[in-house]
Amino acid sequence: MSNADGLALAEQRMTRAGVHRNAIAVFAHSYAVLASGETGLLSESDLEPIESLPRLADLETDDEAARTALRQTAVVKLNGGLGTSMGMDRAKSLVDVRPGRTFLDVIVAQILALRVQYEVELPLLLMDSFRTQTDTLAALAAHPDLAIDDIPLDFLQNREPKLRSSDLTPIDWPADPELEWCPPGHGDLYTALDGSGVLDLLLDRGFRYLFVSNSDNLGARPDPRLAAWFAASGAPIGGEYCRRTEADRKGGHLARRRADGRLVLRESAQTRPQDAEAFGDVNLHRYFNSNNLWLDLPALRRTLDANAGVLGLPIIRNVKTVDPSDPSSPEVIQIETAMGAAIGVFDGAVAIEVDRTRFLPVKSTSDLLVLRSDAYRLTELGEVRLVPGRTEAPLVELDKAYKLLPDFDARFPFGSPSLVGARRLTVQGDWTFGRDVSVLGVVVVPSAGSPGTIADGAVLGAPVDA
3-358 maps to which CATH number? Predict the structure, then answer.
């Protein structure tokens, strides 16, 4: 079967499922790139490192400039993820970060506080997937004051067929037909905004700017200073970037393309083997993407119209099995795109350096333990802040016994141990932590003696300056 046949079958499946025509056009473009064997590699010789960026810490804005910008701003949280890496089958945003308070509850608190403080509407919309929408909307029923007139609380991310890796045809999986589909990555934001009608609705309502971030990143509160910065820039798109450290050597980085001077993101999958050393040099390529993005909505409307709805974002070839829980099931390819890669589509994109308080993603139970601990506090405005005296979060590495959320919760039945005095915690083996356990300095809990229990009131380690 030819690639043309495979694409035709995929398009037919998407049409029957009611997928928007623009999403089908974007999929067709990505499919053609995949079938061509195009690698999307970015050569080091074609890039210029970014030596410095303006810093959020140096911004000088007044409340009126912030209020004016926020008055024209809406917020979107990417909420399509199920937290499958932690064994979840529902939206990750519904996990508790404090007893009785979920990621979603904290996000809502941040928005409501800003509305009161700056006397603005500041709509919040979630980009849900077909797997997260029902549970998320049910949870939002607990926040009746969030909705604003006719602006919806969410819109749906598109979906596309998983493709057999052997011939790029859409796979059939009668055991669970839902597994025949996958989301197209958060690069689908632009297509979903357009196809859902949300983009035009926001424009009709007078909104000009959109702040977008991940729902599992509670550091990504829509900062009024950044709203004012982006509004003053006049740029079509702006991204927030953090300084890379040695811990970020494997992650992607920001650069400038020599050919046209545009900002681009280069991921490890886009890097040639001979450029691996330069890619990992955090002093050469200094900034990584926080996935916090600012968009000018009129500019986005014009660009989509000029390109028939297809921005042409670089594709990510994600190889998995059709049933993620069954490694013996057939191998498939999921075609994905990344939201942040859109900076390479627009002339005049801007970037700003932010510190790591705006980058607190939870990708594992190790991250969740830190966020739940006393190393962080929640302010009255819903901000997540390190407690006074701490300049960086403790590092936590948990054994595979803690990988899945139910197993993790069972091993911390009384919540996180105290980490306010910890620098690093490594747990090897299978341990259940008792009540009021404290970690000080650098601690390794060895596997010897496990499975076992860490006693109530135990103090692990010693103060760093001891």
Answer: 3.90.550.10
C-beta of residue 342 within 8 angstroms of C-beta of residue 190: yes
Which of 85, 79, 172 lies closest to 131 in space, CA to CA? 79
- Residues in CB range of 338: below 8 A, 6 or more apart: 185, 186, 187, 265, 267, 313, 314, 316
Yes or no: is domain 365-461 CATH 2.160.10.10?
Answer: yes
Burial 36-48 (b: 16+ CB within 10 A, else e): eeeeeebebeebe
Give catalytic status of residue 77 as yes or no: no
- The pLDDT tens digits for 318-336 are 899 999 889 999 999 999 9
For residue 266 the two structure tokens come to: 């280069």
- Domain boundaries, given as residue ranges, for the chain: 3-358, 365-461
Exactly one of 77, 320, 363, 400 is catalytic; name it. 363
d(CA 241, CA 416): 29
Backbone angles phi, psi at 294, to 5 degrees: -115, 130
Structure tokens at 38: 């195009």
Q: 205 vs 98, 109, 128, 194, 200, CA distance in Å? A: 35, 23, 22, 15, 8
The 10s digit of each residue's pLDDT in 207-222 is: 999 999 999 999 999 9
pTM above 0.90, yes or no: yes
